[in-house]
Amino acid sequence: MSKRLVVALSGGVGGAKLALGLSRILPADDLLVVANTGDDFEHLGLNISPDIDTLTYALAGLDNPATGWGRRDETWSFMDSIGALGGEDWFRLGDRDLALHVERTRRLRSGQTLSEVTADICRRLGIGARVVPMSDDRVRTRVRSETGWIDFQDYFVRQQCRPVVHALTFDGVTLARPHDDIMAALRSGDVRAVIVCPSNPFISVEPILAIPGIREAIAGSGAPVVAVSPIIGGQAVKGPTAKMMRELGLEASAAGVAARYGDLLDGYIIDHADADGVAAIGARVTIANTLMTSLEDREMLARVTLGAADALASRR
């Protein structure tokens, strides 16, 4: 009997696009999306989980295609009022989006875990695939710049990624426990593929891999690990990936991302624009259209990625 379970590691926008593609070509029970929570923070007294929310809105068909984050058909009365009162309005929370943060915060304060809240919200929004936080324990990504350590959202949103990045750390990660569903899946013997979505390797994927036990469980799963490059033609599709790579002394290229992942990968999906760099990549390379501008693009890339994983599995 063939293996069926696909485990996808995802950050925000790029990861959510591929996760949506996977959700449309796989039975709901066959997809487990592991969400980065290193971006989570507290703002205006609310618990914000940006990557979980981006995944949730994308999978529910509620995402904002113009911004890539937040909900579509949004209004901004709350933020306008906060700004008029002199409050912190640098992190924009739309009126519809605000409801999710208020409800999540209420439930967390009542004793529910982040994964329990996430599962129930996904169910209420009609999402079949499982979206699981990498951990229910607190992990916070921080960036070291010329002026010292900065909380990630301060760097990413308030300062618009302008500071030069010298180092990254994931506060709390050494004490964090991977979510039980992740470990159970990876140890089940039923994993068809582990997919590393086209998310920023430093701030979206590496916090997941830094949780004690997850790398080892991926390696022990026996499943092929296939990543999709977040870089096309030397540029990130969205976000600061290429800028961060250059500042950290790495080559800002699809090959540079593959080198960062190292022996984690068995397969790697790159765009046609990066075909000249195949020789520099250790993993087995598949060349495809990796720019996901339409729903069809998302589904196509999901099929290509799973096809590459299945081809790798057949050679084992």
Mean pLDDT across residues: 95
Distance linking N and C termini: 16 Å
C-alpha Rg (nearest Å): 19 Å
Quaternary structure type: single chain
What number of domains? 1
Sum up the overall morphology in one term: globular
Describe this structure in words.
The chain is an alpha/beta fold. It has one domain (5-64, 112-139, 176-314): CofD-like domains (Rossmann fold, 3-Layer(aba) Sandwich), CATH 3.40.50. It has helices spanning 13-25, 50-60, 77-84, 95-109, 114-124, 152-158, 180-186, 201-210, 214-220, 241-247, 254-261, 295-314; strands at residues 5-10, 31-35, 41-43, 46-48, 130-133, 140-145, 148-151, 167-171, 191-196, 225-228, 231-232, 235-236, 267-271, 284-288. It has a seven-stranded parallel sheet, sandwiched between helices. It has a three-stranded antiparallel sheet with strand order 7-6-8. Strands 3-4 form a two-stranded antiparallel sheet. Strand 11 (231-232) and strand 12 (235-236) form a beta hairpin. Helix 4 (95-109) crosses helix 5. The chain is globular and about 60 Å long. The two termini are 16 Å apart. 46% of the residues are buried. The model has no long low-confidence stretch (mean pLDDT 95).
Features:
39% helix; alpha/beta; three-stranded antiparallel β-sheet; 316 residues; seven-stranded parallel β-sheet; globular; 19% strand; single chain; Rossmann fold
Topology:
Blueprint lengths: L4 E6 L2 H13 L5 E5 L5 E3 L2 E3 L1 H11 L16 H8 L10 H15 L4 H11 L5 E4 L6 E6 L2 E4 H7 L8 E5 L8 H7 L4 E6 L4 H10 L3 H7 L4 E4 L2 E2 L2 E2 L4 H7 L6 H8 L5 E5 L12 E5 L6 H20 L2
Parallel strand pairs: 1-2, 1-9, 2-5, 9-10, 10-13, 13-14
Antiparallel strand pairs: 3-4, 6-7, 6-8, 11-12
Helix pairs in contact: 1-2, 1-12, 4-5
